[in-house]
Amino acid sequence: MGIPLIATIEGSVEASLLILATIIVVGPLVAERLHAPGLIGLILGGMVVGPFMLGWESIGGLISALGSIGLLYLMFLAGLSFNLKSFAENRTSAVVYGLLGFFIPFTLCFVVAVFALGYSALAAALIGAMWASNTLVAYPEAQAAGLADNRAVGTAVSAGVIADVFSLMVLAVVSSAEILGDDPTLTASNPDPALPLWLGMLILGVFTLWVLPRITLWFFVRVGHTRTQRFVFVLGGMAAGAVVALIGGMEGL
After folding, report:
1. Contact assessment for residue 192 and residue 177, using Cβ atoms and an 8 Å cutoff
2. Using an 8 Å Cβ cutoff, are 139 and 161 in contact?
3. pLDDT tens across 157-195, in order?
4. What's 60's DSSP letter?
């Protein structure tokens, strides 16, 4: 009876949630006992139950979707904590750090992919953009340590945002229009964008910088008076911006 039982629960939403909750609770506790950041426990726990070790979770499905949501939310928090005043005071170091953090790995990966591996220019650019991007996974740990206002942390976050913007721009250019369909070395699961890239960027800028702030102000003043309502609205605004980006042929990040 053991084998049919395992087959019944394997890959189910319930089992995935149980595994995920267990890692979230146990992983940081084990890591802290070993005098390591709790984030390390989460990462190692995900590796253990993943498809390349125990195989309890496969690529895709619920865990992949939750991971994408978590990455989107993490980048949203980084943007929310982005101190424009601090950036203005340290803009030279932040911009230089961000540009170097993007162009050095991007150029190295592009050259290796084209001349050593024989990839096309578009495929090489896509690989270079992946290596040049940042996820800011350590930022919550810096916040927990009370270093969010530190100049070095602020500069690193600003530089990470700059590098990510360039990486996502490269991704948008590579994946827009019919490029993926014309290049046999590239594959994509996303459909063609509904709008040209230039128009999508314009609409995204107008929506996030003009439309969404006004809707938010109206909602906070007129409708959303509780913390729960405002939190859910903010998550909805984050998702709305990501959807507008996808329509324009860009990644939701």
Report:
1. yes
2. no
3. 788 878 888 887 887 777 664 444 544 444 444 455 567
4. S
Residue-wise pLDDT for 130-158, tens only, equals 888 876 667 777 777 777 677 777 788 78
Neighbours of 184 (CB within 10 A): 9
Q: Which of 116, 113, 251, 122 is nearest to 184 (CA)?
A: 122
199 Cβ contact partners less than 8 Å away, ≥ 6 residues apart: 248
Which residue, 90, 78, 102, is CA-closest to 155? 90
Q: Which two tokens stand for residue 180?
A: 């993926």
Q: Helices 61-80 and 13-33, interaxial angle, to 10°?
A: 50
Secondary structure letter of residue 150 according to DSSP: -
Amino acid residing at 87: F
Quick check: 127 and 119 in contact, CB under 8 A? Answer: yes
Give 151-193 as a DSSP string.
Answer: HHHHHHHHHHHHHHHHHHHHHHHHHSTTHHHH-TT---SSPPP
Got the DSSP string for 206-220?
HIIIIIHHHHHHHII
**Residue reference for tokens 């890591």:** 31
Q: Is pLDDT of 230 > 60?
A: yes
CB atoms inside a 10 Å sphere around CB 137: 13
CA of residue 114 relative to chain centroid, distance? 27
